[in-house]
Amino acid sequence: MRKPFKLKNKVYIAASASAAGRDEAAGPLGDLFDVTDTADNRFGEDTWEKAESAMQRLALDAALRRAGIGAEEIDALFAGDLLDQCVSSNYAHAESGIPYLGLYGACSTAAEGMILASLACEAGLGTCAAVTSSHFCSAERQFRFPLEYGGQRTPTSQWTVTAAGAFIISRERRAGGVLPRVTEIMPGRIVDRGISDLSNMGAAMAPAAADTLLGYFESGGEPRDFDLIVTGDLGREGSDILRDLCAASGLDIAPRHADCGLMIFDGCSDKHAGGSGCGCSAAVMASDVLKNVRNGTLCNVLFVGTGALMSPLTVNQGASIPGIAHLVHITGEEV
Amino acid sequence: MEYLRAFVVGGALCVVAQILIDKTRLSPARILVAYVVAGVILGGIGVYGPLADFAGGGASTPLTGFGYLIADGTKKAVDAEGAVGIIKGGITAAAGGITAALLLGMLASLVFRSKMK
Amino acid sequence: MNADNKTYARYAEKRAKKSPVLQNCIRAFTVGGAICSVGHALRTLWSAAGLSEDNSGMMASVTLIFAAVLLTGFGRFDEIAKYAGAGTLVPITGFANAVAATAIESRSEGLVAGVGAKLFTVAGPVIVYGVSAGAIYGAVYFVLTKLF
User: Could you count the other beta carbons within 10 Å of the beta carbon of residue C20?
Assistant: First the structure.
């Protein structure tokens, strides 16, 4: 049954960190990312796939440092990305020695990883990690065209973010001050409203986000109880549709709603309807949003990680694009 | 004057494709295939020949010109050699362009690497 | 697709910001026309260099292919194409770019399974359907002219 699950134990996001590429570093959140490659987005590697793995490692290392723990203290790592067989994640953590579970939730993987890591902690594991990434250059190859291919993008198309985000999720609390605590989680349902336009992913994912939010508020509460309702990568198009869909069901989220895809490229040129990809919500949550929870600016946040669950094969076969949206309720708590 | 004719005819062929892309969301690959096949058909029914005479590079540079080349080559080969020309003429006429694209593309992969966008 | 989804698809389609068709067409016309004029000039040049009419046409195409592959390699072609749209796609330059871009990109997967195979991602369909259409036309032409 679809309803929010309240964690009985106190599960904290003990630390988070992010790695990002050049355009992301030049954007409004640029200063908040822990590691950036402002040269060629290769992160010192010779293929785009390896560059993406390197970003995951850099983000996880930074998060571990911030939490003040070593890799050997992680009981389970939940990681995922956009590539076939999740290779960016597989190769990123091959030498880490951390027990590893690979995930595919498309762009919703950051939220999926957070949910599973929190549940693992709830079930008794001490400390888990969730890491996700996307790289424009590897994703473009896989889902669209070669990089040097000359083509025009439509205004509703989104730009895959080159970034990774890592979260250390734990029942231990070492640091003083305010820590983000995962209080509720709610996995989304797959929602397919028949959109098959690969360059309008916002429209494909927005109904899933609406489904999850409407389901969440069925059990009480209202949007204005929250400081922020942040969606993963709906972009401009999807964000507008989500607000419309919620409003049509009597839920006014507009005053509290923001979208990671819009935040990361706000004011940047040539990004069309905004950012997308696993790394989009992961990097924005790991940097901007959680920082603001830690410093007390935000106390009560709903994170709705959105994803589009198609493959190039199903798109070629004319199938429509199913969407998904997972919810994580995060509150700031004095420890 | 001949350059103006090439400019206008070539430009017009591009505009048709642009409208197809923007209005029908046809993928670029489909546009290319459609243009080659259209060139073969228009060449076959005798429309593209006069256009090529009129526009020169304006008709031979677009991919429809590639299709016309195939149709024209097939026709000449059938005239000269009969039925074998059916399977021989088209690709013979298009050989230069195909070989150049494949060879240069292959060589480019040895020299260049993809750049970040 | 159920009625609800049809309504939603229509709604999404309707509210989506459209590509600026007029502006795209003007750019496609200008750049496409310019490339074709260059193609025409190249034909004239090759023919002045002593090539037959057929061969100067072919060499004009080859020259444009060379230029497009070079621009693709230096990472400039996609910047022009972003502006010109069909203006660079429809001339032979678009075909050359598609071949070179896939070849360069798949280099990391090796020369055979990467470059050799992926090179045909866009070139393959063009050659397959161009040549097939030519053969069908040839058969029709043969039947009409030789058998009747």
Answer: 12
pLDDT of residue B115: 84
Q: Give the total number of structural domains in chain C.
A: 1
| Region for A86 from its dihedrals, namely left if φ exceeds 0, alpha if ψ lies in -120 to 50, beta otherwise | left
What are the pLDDT digits (tens) for A39-53? 999 999 999 999 999
Give the confidence band of A174 by pLDDT, cuts at 50, 70, 90: confident
| C6 contacts A151? CB cut-off 8 A | no
**Which CATH entry fits the domain spanning A12-170: 3.40.47.40, 2.30.110.70, 3.20.20.210, 3.60.15.10?**
3.40.47.40
pTM of the model: 0.94
Give residue for tokens 């049509």.
Answer: A248
Residues 13-32, chain C: which have Cβ within 8 Å of A?
A: 13, 15-19, 24
List chains touching B (3+ CB pairs under 8 A).
A, C
| Distance between A43 CA and the closest CA of chain B, angstroms | 12
Smallest Cβ–Cβ distance between A137 and the set B21, B25, B117 belongs to B117
Q: Which residues of C touch A155 (CB under 8 A)?
A: 16-19
Residue B110 burial class via C-beta count within 10 angstroms: exposed 0-12, middle 13-18, buried 19 and up? exposed
In a domain, C9, yes or no: no
Answer whether residue C1 shows pLDDT above 60. Answer: no
Instruction: Find, in chain C, the residue whose alpha carbon is nearest to that of B72.
Output: C134
| Residue B116 to residue A151, Cβ atoms within 8 A | no
Where, residue-wise, is CATH 3.40.47.40 in chain A?
Answer: 12-170, 178-334
pLDDT classification of A175: cutoffs 50, 70, 90 = low
Chain A nearest-CA distance from C84, in A, is 8
Q: Are residues B101 and C123 in contact, defined by beta-carbon separation less than 8 angstroms?
A: yes
Q: Which residues span the domain enclosing C45?
A: 21-147
Per CATH, the number for A178-334 is 3.40.47.40
In a domain, C16, yes or no: no
Name the minimum distance, in Å, from the CA of C88 to any CA of chain A. Answer: 8
Report chain C residues whose CB lies below 8 A from the CB of A47: 108
* Cα–Cα dist A225/B51, whole Å: 69
Residue B114 pLDDT? 86
Query: What pLDDT, on the 0 to 100 scale, is given for residue A335?
Result: 85
Tell me the three-class secondary structure of A290-316, residue by residue. HHHHHCCCCCEEEEEEEEECCCHHHHH
Contact C102 A146 (CB under 8 A): yes
For the stretch C92-148, pLDDT in tens is 999 999 999 999 999 999 999 999 999 999 899 999 999 999 999 999 999 999 887
- Mean pLDDT across A101-113: 97
Nearest-Cα distance to chain A for B28, in Å, is: 8
Residue C52 lies in a domain: yes
- Is C10 contained in some domain? no
Tell me what the pLDDT averaged over chain C comes to. 94
Q: Are A113 and A279 in contact (CB under 8 A)?
A: no
